[in-house]
Design a protein that fits this description.
Layout lengths: L8 E6 L5 H16 L4 E5 L31 E5 L13 H4 L2 E6 L10 E4 L6 H11 L6 H14 L10 H11 L5 H9 L4 H12 L2 E3 L8 E6 L1 H6 L10 H5 L7 E9 L2 E8 L5 H7 L3 E2 L3 E7 L2 H17 L5
Parallel strand pairs: 1-2, 1-3, 3-4, 4-5, 7-8
Antiparallel strand pairs: 6-7, 8-9, 9-11, 10-11
Helix pairs in contact: 1-3, 1-4, 3-4, 4-5, 4-6, 10-11
The structure holds adenosine monophosphate and manganese (II) ion (MN) (2 copies).
Length: about 325
Amino acid sequence: MQQLPPDARVLLICHVNPDGDALGSMLGFGLGLRRLGVRRMQATFPGPPEVPEPLKGLPGLDLLVPATEAYSDPDLVVCFDAASESRLGDLVDRLESAGTALVLDHHASNTGFGRVNLVDPHAAATSVVAEELLARLDVPLDAGIAECLYVALSTDTGSFRFEATTPAVHQLAARLLATGIRPGDISRRVFDTRPFGAVKLFGEVLGRARLEPAAAAGHGLVWTYATLDDLARHGQRPSVLEALIDSVRCTAEADVSCVVKQTAAGEWAVSMRSKGAVDVSRVAVALGGGGHRFAAGFTGRGTADEVVDRIRAELDGALTGTARG
Ligand code: AMP
Ligand code: MN
Ligand code: MN
Protein backbone atom coordinates (compact mmCIF):
# COMPACT_ATOMS: atom_id res chain seq x y z
CA MET A 1 0.00 0.00 0.00
CA GLN A 2 2.85 2.34 0.86
CA GLN A 3 4.24 1.58 -2.61
CA LEU A 4 1.03 2.70 -4.33
CA PRO A 5 1.89 5.24 -7.04
CA PRO A 6 0.42 8.64 -6.16
CA ASP A 7 -1.99 8.56 -9.10
CA ALA A 8 -3.22 4.99 -8.44
CA ARG A 9 -6.99 4.59 -8.54
CA VAL A 10 -8.30 2.74 -5.50
CA LEU A 11 -11.81 1.28 -5.36
CA LEU A 12 -13.25 0.26 -1.98
CA ILE A 13 -16.27 -2.07 -2.09
CA CYS A 14 -18.42 -3.35 0.77
CA HIS A 15 -21.25 -5.88 0.73
CA VAL A 16 -24.74 -5.29 -0.65
CA ASN A 17 -27.26 -3.77 1.79
CA PRO A 18 -24.37 -2.42 3.83
CA ASP A 19 -24.56 -2.51 7.62
CA GLY A 20 -22.50 -0.55 10.14
CA ASP A 21 -19.48 -2.85 9.84
CA ALA A 22 -19.50 -2.86 6.04
CA LEU A 23 -19.74 0.93 5.65
CA GLY A 24 -17.81 1.78 8.81
CA SER A 25 -14.80 -0.40 8.07
CA MET A 26 -14.76 0.71 4.42
CA LEU A 27 -15.02 4.45 5.10
CA GLY A 28 -12.66 4.31 8.10
CA PHE A 29 -10.06 2.52 5.99
CA GLY A 30 -10.67 4.96 3.12
CA LEU A 31 -10.09 7.95 5.40
CA GLY A 32 -6.89 6.22 6.54
CA LEU A 33 -5.70 5.77 2.94
CA ARG A 34 -6.46 9.44 2.36
CA ARG A 35 -4.09 10.28 5.20
CA LEU A 36 -1.47 8.17 3.41
CA GLY A 37 -1.85 10.47 0.41
CA VAL A 38 -4.14 8.36 -1.77
CA ARG A 39 -6.11 10.92 -3.79
CA ARG A 40 -7.94 8.95 -6.47
CA MET A 41 -10.25 6.83 -4.40
CA GLN A 42 -13.88 5.78 -4.54
CA ALA A 43 -16.00 3.79 -2.10
CA THR A 44 -19.11 1.96 -3.26
CA PHE A 45 -21.48 -0.97 -2.79
CA PRO A 46 -23.78 -2.86 -5.16
CA GLY A 47 -27.42 -1.91 -5.63
CA PRO A 48 -29.17 1.41 -5.05
CA PRO A 49 -26.73 4.01 -3.67
CA GLU A 50 -28.77 4.56 -0.51
CA VAL A 51 -27.10 4.83 2.87
CA PRO A 52 -29.35 3.58 5.70
CA GLU A 53 -30.63 6.51 7.77
CA PRO A 54 -28.76 5.52 10.99
CA LEU A 55 -25.44 5.57 9.07
CA LYS A 56 -25.93 8.92 7.37
CA GLY A 57 -23.76 10.70 9.94
CA LEU A 58 -20.65 8.60 9.18
CA PRO A 59 -17.50 10.56 8.37
CA GLY A 60 -16.07 9.84 4.91
CA LEU A 61 -19.42 9.58 3.11
CA ASP A 62 -17.96 11.95 0.49
CA LEU A 63 -15.91 8.96 -0.73
CA LEU A 64 -19.11 7.18 -1.81
CA VAL A 65 -20.11 6.92 -5.47
CA PRO A 66 -22.99 4.94 -7.00
CA ALA A 67 -21.92 1.48 -8.24
CA THR A 68 -22.63 2.62 -11.80
CA GLU A 69 -19.93 5.29 -11.50
CA ALA A 70 -17.24 3.13 -9.89
CA TYR A 71 -13.85 2.85 -11.67
CA SER A 72 -14.15 0.03 -14.20
CA ASP A 73 -10.46 -0.95 -13.96
CA PRO A 74 -9.01 0.33 -10.68
CA ASP A 75 -5.37 -0.29 -9.82
CA LEU A 76 -6.41 -1.68 -6.45
CA VAL A 77 -9.74 -2.96 -5.19
CA VAL A 78 -10.32 -3.54 -1.46
CA CYS A 79 -13.40 -5.50 -0.31
CA PHE A 80 -14.93 -5.17 3.16
CA ASP A 81 -17.11 -7.51 5.25
CA ALA A 82 -18.03 -9.71 2.26
CA ALA A 83 -17.68 -13.46 2.79
CA SER A 84 -17.93 -14.27 -0.90
CA GLU A 85 -17.99 -12.69 -4.35
CA SER A 86 -21.77 -13.02 -4.47
CA ARG A 87 -22.02 -10.29 -1.81
CA LEU A 88 -20.46 -7.83 -4.29
CA GLY A 89 -23.36 -8.06 -6.77
CA ASP A 90 -22.61 -6.42 -10.12
CA LEU A 91 -19.28 -5.12 -8.84
CA VAL A 92 -17.82 -8.63 -8.84
CA ASP A 93 -16.20 -7.96 -12.24
CA ARG A 94 -13.82 -5.47 -10.58
CA LEU A 95 -12.03 -8.43 -8.96
CA GLU A 96 -10.90 -9.38 -12.47
CA SER A 97 -10.38 -5.92 -13.95
CA ALA A 98 -8.45 -4.49 -10.99
CA GLY A 99 -4.64 -4.57 -10.87
CA THR A 100 -4.93 -6.41 -7.58
CA ALA A 101 -7.64 -7.32 -5.08
CA LEU A 102 -7.39 -7.20 -1.30
CA VAL A 103 -10.08 -8.73 0.93
CA LEU A 104 -10.63 -7.60 4.53
CA ASP A 105 -13.17 -9.73 6.39
CA HIS A 106 -14.04 -11.73 9.49
CA HIS A 107 -16.47 -14.42 8.24
CA ALA A 108 -15.31 -17.98 8.94
CA SER A 109 -16.97 -18.93 5.64
CA ASN A 110 -14.87 -16.44 3.61
CA THR A 111 -13.95 -18.07 0.31
CA GLY A 112 -10.62 -16.24 -0.09
CA PHE A 113 -11.67 -14.58 -3.33
CA GLY A 114 -9.02 -11.84 -3.28
CA ARG A 115 -5.39 -11.91 -4.39
CA VAL A 116 -4.50 -11.07 -0.79
CA ASN A 117 -6.97 -12.12 1.90
CA LEU A 118 -6.81 -10.61 5.37
CA VAL A 119 -9.54 -12.70 6.98
CA ASP A 120 -9.69 -13.20 10.73
CA PRO A 121 -12.67 -15.33 11.77
CA HIS A 122 -11.92 -14.48 15.41
CA ALA A 123 -12.19 -10.74 14.80
CA ALA A 124 -15.40 -9.25 16.19
CA ALA A 125 -15.81 -7.05 13.11
CA THR A 126 -14.11 -6.30 9.80
CA SER A 127 -13.15 -2.98 11.38
CA VAL A 128 -10.77 -4.88 13.70
CA VAL A 129 -8.91 -6.17 10.64
CA ALA A 130 -9.03 -2.72 9.02
CA GLU A 131 -7.56 -1.06 12.12
CA GLU A 132 -4.74 -3.63 12.28
CA LEU A 133 -3.82 -2.90 8.68
CA LEU A 134 -3.97 0.87 9.23
CA ALA A 135 -1.66 0.46 12.23
CA ARG A 136 0.79 -1.59 10.13
CA LEU A 137 0.71 1.22 7.56
CA ASP A 138 1.54 3.69 10.36
CA VAL A 139 -1.68 5.63 9.84
CA PRO A 140 -2.54 7.43 13.10
CA LEU A 141 -6.17 7.23 14.22
CA ASP A 142 -8.01 10.53 13.94
CA ALA A 143 -11.58 11.24 15.04
CA GLY A 144 -13.03 10.63 11.56
CA ILE A 145 -11.38 7.23 11.12
CA ALA A 146 -12.19 6.35 14.74
CA GLU A 147 -15.89 7.18 14.45
CA CYS A 148 -16.25 4.95 11.40
CA LEU A 149 -14.43 2.06 13.06
CA TYR A 150 -16.36 2.56 16.31
CA VAL A 151 -19.70 2.38 14.51
CA ALA A 152 -18.52 -0.81 12.79
CA LEU A 153 -17.27 -2.37 16.02
CA SER A 154 -20.31 -1.47 18.09
CA THR A 155 -22.70 -2.66 15.35
CA ASP A 156 -21.17 -6.12 14.99
CA THR A 157 -20.75 -6.66 18.75
CA GLY A 158 -24.33 -5.56 19.48
CA SER A 159 -22.95 -2.58 21.41
CA PHE A 160 -20.31 -4.73 23.11
CA ARG A 161 -22.82 -7.34 24.31
CA PHE A 162 -22.07 -10.36 22.10
CA GLU A 163 -19.65 -13.24 22.77
CA ALA A 164 -17.06 -11.75 20.42
CA THR A 165 -16.56 -8.85 22.85
CA THR A 166 -13.05 -9.77 24.02
CA PRO A 167 -10.60 -7.68 26.05
CA ALA A 168 -8.97 -6.80 22.71
CA VAL A 169 -12.31 -5.40 21.49
CA HIS A 170 -12.54 -3.11 24.51
CA GLN A 171 -8.90 -2.12 24.06
CA LEU A 172 -9.63 -1.15 20.46
CA ALA A 173 -12.73 0.73 21.60
CA ALA A 174 -10.56 2.56 24.13
CA ARG A 175 -8.08 3.62 21.42
CA LEU A 176 -10.96 4.83 19.26
CA LEU A 177 -12.62 6.76 22.12
CA ALA A 178 -9.28 8.37 22.99
CA THR A 179 -9.54 10.37 19.74
CA GLY A 180 -12.39 12.32 21.34
CA ILE A 181 -15.38 10.78 19.55
CA ARG A 182 -18.67 10.93 21.47
CA PRO A 183 -20.11 7.43 22.08
CA GLY A 184 -23.42 8.73 23.44
CA ASP A 185 -24.17 10.79 20.35
CA ILE A 186 -22.99 8.04 18.01
CA SER A 187 -25.04 5.30 19.69
CA ARG A 188 -28.18 7.43 19.83
CA ARG A 189 -27.89 8.17 16.12
CA VAL A 190 -26.97 4.64 15.04
CA PHE A 191 -29.09 2.50 17.36
CA ASP A 192 -31.68 4.55 19.19
CA THR A 193 -33.31 6.81 16.62
CA ARG A 194 -36.13 5.91 14.28
CA PRO A 195 -39.11 7.71 12.75
CA PHE A 196 -42.48 7.35 14.48
CA GLY A 197 -43.74 5.50 11.37
CA ALA A 198 -41.08 2.85 12.00
CA VAL A 199 -42.16 2.54 15.65
CA LYS A 200 -45.74 1.89 14.47
CA LEU A 201 -44.52 -0.51 11.78
CA PHE A 202 -42.48 -2.46 14.35
CA GLY A 203 -45.60 -2.67 16.55
CA GLU A 204 -47.58 -4.22 13.73
CA VAL A 205 -44.87 -6.62 12.61
CA LEU A 206 -44.01 -7.70 16.17
CA GLY A 207 -47.74 -8.16 16.81
CA ARG A 208 -47.84 -10.94 14.24
CA ALA A 209 -44.72 -12.79 15.48
CA ARG A 210 -45.15 -16.54 15.91
CA LEU A 211 -43.53 -18.66 18.61
CA GLU A 212 -42.91 -22.32 17.82
CA PRO A 213 -41.42 -23.91 20.96
CA ALA A 214 -41.13 -27.37 19.35
CA ALA A 215 -39.17 -26.15 16.31
CA ALA A 216 -35.37 -26.49 16.03
CA ALA A 217 -35.56 -29.84 17.85
CA GLY A 218 -37.19 -28.20 20.86
CA HIS A 219 -34.84 -25.22 21.09
CA GLY A 220 -37.67 -23.06 19.78
CA LEU A 221 -38.16 -20.69 16.86
CA VAL A 222 -39.70 -17.23 16.86
CA TRP A 223 -40.33 -15.47 13.58
CA THR A 224 -42.18 -12.71 11.84
CA TYR A 225 -42.31 -11.11 8.42
CA ALA A 226 -42.70 -7.66 6.85
CA THR A 227 -43.94 -6.95 3.34
CA LEU A 228 -43.27 -4.06 0.98
CA ASP A 229 -46.91 -3.13 1.54
CA ASP A 230 -46.26 -2.85 5.30
CA LEU A 231 -43.38 -0.48 4.55
CA ALA A 232 -45.45 1.58 2.13
CA ARG A 233 -48.39 1.91 4.55
CA HIS A 234 -46.08 3.34 7.19
CA GLY A 235 -44.02 5.37 4.70
CA GLN A 236 -40.79 3.59 5.62
CA ARG A 237 -37.70 2.46 3.72
CA PRO A 238 -36.57 -1.20 3.83
CA SER A 239 -33.44 -0.41 5.86
CA VAL A 240 -35.53 0.50 8.96
CA LEU A 241 -36.26 -3.24 9.27
CA GLU A 242 -32.60 -4.07 9.98
CA ALA A 243 -33.16 -3.36 13.67
CA LEU A 244 -36.30 -5.49 13.91
CA ILE A 245 -34.45 -8.74 14.58
CA ASP A 246 -33.10 -7.25 17.83
CA SER A 247 -36.64 -7.01 19.20
CA VAL A 248 -37.61 -10.48 18.00
CA ARG A 249 -34.49 -12.25 19.30
CA CYS A 250 -35.29 -11.18 22.90
CA THR A 251 -37.88 -13.97 23.06
CA ALA A 252 -36.94 -16.16 26.03
CA GLU A 253 -38.72 -19.26 24.75
CA ALA A 254 -36.80 -19.54 21.46
CA ASP A 255 -33.13 -20.14 20.69
CA VAL A 256 -33.59 -19.21 17.05
CA SER A 257 -35.17 -16.00 15.80
CA CYS A 258 -35.92 -15.00 12.29
CA VAL A 259 -37.27 -12.00 10.36
CA VAL A 260 -38.38 -12.43 6.75
CA LYS A 261 -38.30 -9.08 4.92
CA GLN A 262 -39.81 -8.70 1.47
CA THR A 263 -37.46 -7.06 -1.05
CA ALA A 264 -39.47 -7.71 -4.28
CA ALA A 265 -42.39 -9.86 -5.45
CA GLY A 266 -41.58 -13.38 -4.21
CA GLU A 267 -38.17 -12.34 -2.79
CA TRP A 268 -37.21 -11.95 0.86
CA ALA A 269 -34.12 -10.95 2.82
CA VAL A 270 -33.95 -13.29 5.78
CA SER A 271 -32.19 -12.48 9.05
CA MET A 272 -31.54 -15.26 11.56
CA ARG A 273 -30.09 -15.18 15.06
CA SER A 274 -29.28 -17.89 17.61
CA LYS A 275 -28.65 -17.71 21.33
CA GLY A 276 -26.10 -20.53 21.11
CA ALA A 277 -27.78 -23.93 20.75
CA VAL A 278 -28.08 -23.72 16.98
CA ASP A 279 -25.52 -22.77 14.31
CA VAL A 280 -27.70 -20.61 12.06
CA SER A 281 -24.89 -20.09 9.53
CA ARG A 282 -25.32 -23.76 8.56
CA VAL A 283 -28.99 -23.13 7.86
CA ALA A 284 -28.21 -19.96 5.92
CA VAL A 285 -25.48 -21.62 3.84
CA ALA A 286 -27.78 -24.55 3.06
CA LEU A 287 -30.33 -22.03 1.77
CA GLY A 288 -27.82 -20.13 -0.37
CA GLY A 289 -26.66 -17.46 2.09
CA GLY A 290 -24.02 -17.15 4.78
CA GLY A 291 -22.99 -15.44 7.98
CA HIS A 292 -21.75 -16.33 11.43
CA ARG A 293 -22.74 -19.05 13.95
CA PHE A 294 -25.10 -16.78 15.81
CA ALA A 295 -26.08 -14.31 13.07
CA ALA A 296 -26.72 -15.31 9.49
CA GLY A 297 -28.97 -14.63 6.53
CA PHE A 298 -29.99 -15.57 3.02
CA THR A 299 -32.28 -14.56 0.16
CA GLY A 300 -35.55 -16.52 0.24
CA ARG A 301 -37.97 -17.04 -2.65
CA GLY A 302 -41.71 -17.77 -2.77
CA THR A 303 -44.14 -16.78 -0.03
CA ALA A 304 -43.05 -15.91 3.51
CA ASP A 305 -44.63 -19.17 4.71
CA GLU A 306 -42.65 -21.17 2.16
CA VAL A 307 -39.43 -19.46 3.25
CA VAL A 308 -40.13 -20.28 6.90
CA ASP A 309 -41.04 -23.88 5.99
CA ARG A 310 -37.56 -24.24 4.48
CA ILE A 311 -35.93 -22.76 7.56
CA ARG A 312 -37.85 -25.15 9.84
CA ALA A 313 -36.74 -28.13 7.74
CA GLU A 314 -33.09 -26.99 7.68
CA LEU A 315 -33.12 -26.31 11.42
CA ASP A 316 -34.14 -29.90 12.08
CA GLY A 317 -31.47 -31.12 9.64
CA ALA A 318 -28.77 -28.91 11.16
CA LEU A 319 -29.57 -30.13 14.65
CA THR A 320 -29.63 -33.81 13.88
CA GLY A 321 -26.15 -33.24 12.35
CA THR A 322 -24.63 -31.82 15.57
CA ALA A 323 -23.56 -33.34 18.88
CA ARG A 324 -26.19 -31.22 20.59
CA GLY A 325 -28.77 -33.35 18.81
P1 AMP B 1 -28.29 -9.55 8.88
O1 AMP B 1 -29.34 -10.43 9.44
O2 AMP B 1 -28.66 -8.95 7.57
O3 AMP B 1 -27.80 -8.56 9.89
O4 AMP B 1 -27.04 -10.49 8.55
C1 AMP B 1 -26.43 -11.29 9.53
C2 AMP B 1 -25.22 -11.96 8.95
O5 AMP B 1 -25.58 -12.82 7.91
C3 AMP B 1 -24.20 -10.97 8.37
O6 AMP B 1 -22.95 -11.28 8.94
C4 AMP B 1 -24.16 -11.24 6.90
O7 AMP B 1 -22.84 -11.35 6.48
C5 AMP B 1 -24.85 -12.57 6.71
N1 AMP B 1 -25.83 -12.51 5.60
C6 AMP B 1 -27.03 -11.89 5.61
N2 AMP B 1 -27.65 -12.04 4.44
C7 AMP B 1 -26.85 -12.78 3.64
C8 AMP B 1 -26.92 -13.27 2.29
N3 AMP B 1 -27.98 -13.05 1.50
N4 AMP B 1 -25.87 -13.98 1.84
C9 AMP B 1 -24.80 -14.24 2.61
N5 AMP B 1 -24.67 -13.80 3.88
C10 AMP B 1 -25.67 -13.09 4.41
MN1 MN C 1 -21.96 -7.00 7.47
MN1 MN D 1 -19.08 -7.78 9.94
